[in-house]
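User: C-alpha cells for this one?
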Amino acid sequence: MNGKTICITGANSGIGFHTAQELARAGARVILGVRNREKGENAAVRIRTEIPGAQVDVFPLDLSSRKSIESFAGRVREATSSLDVLVNNAGQMSSRFETTEDGFELQVGVNYLGHFLLTRLLLDRLKQAPEGRVIHLSSSAHYGGKIDFERFRADKGRYKGMPAYAQSKLANVLFASELARRYPDIRSYSLHPGVVGSNIVRPDKLGWLFTIGWTLFKPFTFSPKRGAKTSLFLATATPAPEPNGQYFDEHQHPMKPSRLARDTQVARELWETSERLWREAGATI
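Assistant:
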C-alpha cells in the first residue's frame, strides 16, 4: 500500500480505527475523518506511536452536516490529487426520531446520505487513482430493510429505530452496486463486518434498556479489530474482487444481498432521489 492515500470516516475508534491502523502499517497515507477532533488526534498519536513513520492526517467531519461534509471533502481534495480508497465506515444508531442539520432522519442521514454526498464530492479524486475503490460498511440488518423515501425526512407515525437503521444499511448496499454500474472504473463494494462490540450503541441514543442488553451481549460479539478484516481485505485485495459491486460477509466471502438490494430500479431511484434531496439542501453535485 506504499504511496496510496486512503480516507476513512469514523476512524478514531472501533472498526474505523483498526482499519486505519492496519492500512498505515501497510505503508498507506491515511486520512481520518472524525467528528471529534481531539479524539481523532489521540487516535493518530496511537497509530504513530505504534508505527513509527506512519502518515496520518486528521480532518474534522460531521456526516450530519452538509457544510462539514463539503469542508472535509475540500480539505481532502487540497491534500491529495488522487484518492485510492474511500472507506465509508462511520455509523449511527438511534431509537428516537431525530434529524440532521439538513433535515434528514438521523440514521439515513449519517449512515447513507452523508456518505453519498461525500463520495460524490470525491469522485474526481477516486477517478485519478489507478484503481479507485469505495468500501461501504453495511450490515446484515439490511435484509430486513425497505426503502421508504418519505421517511428520509419525516417521521410517519411511531418511530422505530431498528427499521430506520435497516433502511439506511439497505441504502448502503444499493449505493455500492449503483456506483459500480455508473462508474465501472471505480471498484465499489459493500460489507457486513459481523456483530461487532463497538461504541455505536450509546445510551443517549438507544436508551438504557437496549444499552444494558447490549452490554450483556457484547462479550459474544466480534472485536473491532476482527470486524475490520473485511474492510481491509476489500481495500488491499490484488486483484480487486470481481464482479464489481458485490456484497461481502464478515469472513470476506461474497454473499447474495437481499432481494431489494438487488433491484436495479430501486438502486437507480435511490441515487436520483439522493441527488435531488442534496440539491434541495444546497449541495452542488
